[in-house]
Amino acid sequence: STFNYQVQWKYDATTNLYNRFLAGKEHVTADGTKLAAKNVVVISVKTQLADAEHLSMTTIGSGDATVFRDGLKITGTWTKDGRNTRMVFKDASGQIIPLDAGQTWIEVVPPDRKVTTT
After folding, report:
1. In terms of CB atoms within 10 Å, which end of the chain has fewer, N or C?
2. Among 25, 7, 13, which residue's Cα sits nearest to residue 69?
């Protein structure tokens, strides 16, 4: 997508939170609250055009996932068996990845998009 939609998460070890940035600026709500999360999960999903203005994303099934928690990057997979089931994140050895208590933000990206870390 364009620079206007470029999302970044920056880890703050002091607060153990990931702060969200959009287009190079801190992402804030209408009332000025900064967006932050304890866990950030990036999942890769199949996408297709639903119509001229909308994208359809397949979130039932499985795919690649990267979990950011406590300053760590954990590569693995996501699975979701049905519309009313919860999404499960597992590491490369097949173990469920525990998430910290608090807000979890899930970023959804098409498989052809590159996610970079620094």
Report:
1. C
2. 13
Which ranges in 1-118 belong to alpha helices (H)? none
What CA–CA distance (Å, rounded) separates 118 from 42? 15
Q: What is the DSSP string of 35-54?
A: PEESEEEEEE--EEESSSS-
pLDDT at 1: 54
Tokens found for residue 8: 């970044």
Q: In order along the chain (118 residues), what is the average pLDDT of each group of 10 residues? A: 78 98 93 97 93 90 97 97 97 97 95 82
Q: Are 103 and 38 in contact (CB under 8 A)?
A: yes
End-to-end CA distance of the chain: 20
Contacts of 111 (CB under 8 A, 6+ apart): 44, 45, 46, 63, 64
CB 18 within 8 A of CB 12: yes
Kindly tell me the burial class for residue 63, based on how many C-beta atoms sit within 10 Å of its own C-beta (0-12, 13-18, 19 or more).
middle
